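Support request, please re-run this one:
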Amino acid sequence: MKIPAANHLVLFIKKEFVLLVFLLLLVFLVFLLPDEVTNYPSFVNWDTIAALTGLLIIATGLKESGYFDFISGKTIKRVKNERALALYIIILSVVLSTFLTNDITLFIVVPLTLSFQGIVKNDLTKLIIFEAIAVNAGSALTPIGNPQNIFLWHIWSVSFPGFILRMLPVVSVLFLILILFVFIVFSDKEIRYAENNDGDAPLKRIMFLTSLVMMVVFVVSFELRYVKFFLPVVFVVFFMFYRDVLRKTDWLLILLFIVIFIDFHLVSLMPEVSESVHKLNLDIPGNVFLFSGIVSQFISNVPAGVFVSKFSHEWLAITYGVNVGGNGLVIASLANVIALRMAKNKKIWITFHKYSILYMMVTGIIVYYMLCMY
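Re-run finished. Output below.
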């Protein structure tokens, strides 16, 4: 009995390594700033937590309905070469990530790619790398595309369409450079199929339609600042009719976000940190963009967004920085870790940086000069 228990513990540590790191940081900060413990609830942006919770539940419902896998599986049969396959999957990743979030999208497209690997003879390892880059790019467009956008949108106080309009220039750059990389990296080598395998996963039409309607209503409720009132409705509906969706929702991601809020509020209170950051002149958008992108490389872009927001109100520059900064080092975005971990290929971690760092540098330079011209 002890061996299985130990194996479960090891698997949990590997899966939730990032959460455990931030929990350990919190333990350290408790001892460093003991007088702040009673203030922890006020450090958390609960509106953002409520929005993230509702979106994760609904997006999980959309995923579990099986419709995205079904449509993609049918479409793959029309693809003739590796470049066409890469373009299809990457564009699909970009589109889905705009409203399903980058993490949820990866739980659709990466298993889909791995299933393709079972019916084609071509090596699709590089495709998973570019799927991670693609969801980072696509999720930057909307307020609900990723956790950092949900948080920044709430405190930015701009409308849903207004957020999209402001993010459209940087996402256009991210998308166009991504497509350029695809044409360079992937060849027109013909797709060689093994035996045909259609798969018969059941489709859950009512679940799909229910989740789709609730997604629209939930976004509207966010726009009208009624998320706290609609979130219980979401929970009750799924609890009554689709409890399996609640079971598969990533609740530990919610906990991670709560811990991040507390951690980096405490870090920002430390005099040494505060004094050092204030010397960077974060009233200049270009400086804020660079700082946000660099910080993202070391603590990932979600906590980077929370941390930098304590020192600057240049919301556009922060949002640009943490979204562009989601590429680069693997830790820069949780989405990167999720994608590479699902690939179960040790070599992919090194290959990822070969493309991701170069992509981040190219897009970062372009977006920096765009921001400086505003």
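The chain is about 75% helix and 0% strand. The longest helix spans residues 160-185.
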